[in-house]
Amino acid sequence: MRGLIALSGAFILMACGPGAPHEFPASERAQFSASCPASDPVCACTWDRITREMTYEDYQAAVERFRRDGLMDHRITHARAVCVEQHPH
């Protein structure tokens, strides 16, 4: 019964759609666009998903971890994968 209630709650939350994007400095968007141009639909989608799923602080920590350890945060990888599927070239 608890599983059914949890599953129902998840479906209700999914129906609400994505939340508003978190605030990121314009300079961070510019840095992202240097390697993934905003004119590319996959890149625009990826940035949108990242800013909705991560706070700026979480994103900064993920970038630092990637630079230090070479490990990409799963939320960034997932955002990119979803956008590639949604916007095939």
Mind explaining what this structure looks like?
- It is a single chain.
- With 89 residues, this protein is mostly helical.
- Helices cover 72% and strands 0% of the residues.
- The chain is built from 5 helices and no strands.
- The chain has helices at residues 2-15, 26-35, 41-53, 56-69, 74-86.
- Helix 3 (41-53) packs antiparallel against helix 5.
- The longest helix has 14 residues, at 2-15.
- It is globular and about 30 Å long.
- The protein starts with a helix and ends with a helix.
- Mean pLDDT is 86; it is low at 6-15.
Strand percentage, roughly?
Answer: under 5%
Low-pLDDT stretches:
6-15
- Terminal CA distance reads 44 Å
* Total number of strands: 0
Count of helical regions: 5
Structural class based on helices, strands and sheet pairing:
mainly alpha
Biggest sheet descriptor: none
- Give Rg in angstroms: 15 Å
Overall geometry comes to globular
Q: Output the helix-strand order.
A: HHHHH
Mean pLDDT equals: 86
> What is the share of helical residues?
over 70%
Short description, anyone?
Helices cover 72% and strands 0% of the residues.
How is the secondary structure organized here?
Blueprint: H1 2-15, H2 26-35, H3 41-53, H4 56-69, H5 74-86
Helix pairs in contact: 3-5
